[in-house]
Amino acid sequence: PCAFAALVALSFSGAIGLTFLMLGCALEYYGVYWPLFVLIFYFICPIPHFIAKRVGDDSDAASSACRELAYFFTTGIVVSAFGLPIILARVEAIKWGACGLVLAGNAVIFLTILGFFLVFGRGDDFSWEQW
Predict the structure, then answer these.
(1) Where do the TM regions start and end (predicted)?
(2) d(CA 123, CA 114)
(3) Residues of the domain holding 69
(4) What's the whole-model pTM score?
(5) What is the mean pLDDT of residues 38-59?
(6) How buried is 88 (Cβ within 10 angstroms: 0-12 exposed, 13-18 middle, 19+ buried)?
(7) Of 39, 25, 20, nearest to 89 (Cα)?
(8) Total structural domains within the chain
(9) How far is the C-alpha of 21 from the C-alpha of 99, rounded, in Å?
(10) Are the C-beta atoms of 80 and 71 separated by less than 8 Å?
């Protein structure tokens, strides 16, 4: 029951984040679809974590080099996702309003991804760690 409610809440927040992203692209005033390239960052964001889970040792150590490297790469991906629309707005490829909508969408999507790992990454009986 609790996992189902969390999954519904995460999917709802993901839909809101993608709505912000689409509004930044598809509104007639903006009308440029360059910000959709941040979707690439959404897809590759969890990959370092999955690799670190597979490669890292199973001990409950407070820190490991593999996990820290995964945090580093994930941070670089997230910062790049926030930097891309700012650079696109700076070179006037998109308008600043579209940049604001994409940044709002980025914040919601990355908080959703974080929430997914906080809710389903605990390793209890209902987990997504099998993949």
Answers:
(1) 33-51, 71-88, 94-120
(2) 15
(3) 31-50+62-95
(4) 0.84
(5) 86
(6) buried
(7) 25
(8) 2
(9) 9
(10) no
The residue type found at 127 is: S
What is the structure's pLDDT at 92?
92
The single residue listed with the structure tokens 């941040």 is: 38
Q: Are 25 and 33 in contact (CB under 8 A)?
A: yes
Question: What are the tokens at 77?
Answer: 């991906």
**pLDDT digits over 62-91, tens only?**
668 888 999 999 999 999 999 999 999 999
- E strand residue ranges, 4-72: none
Query: Do the domain assignments include residue 118?
Result: no
The percent helix, strand, coil of the chain (3-state, each to 5) is: 75, 0, 25
Report how far residue 42's alpha carbon sits from residue 83's, in angstroms, rounded to the nearest whole number: 14
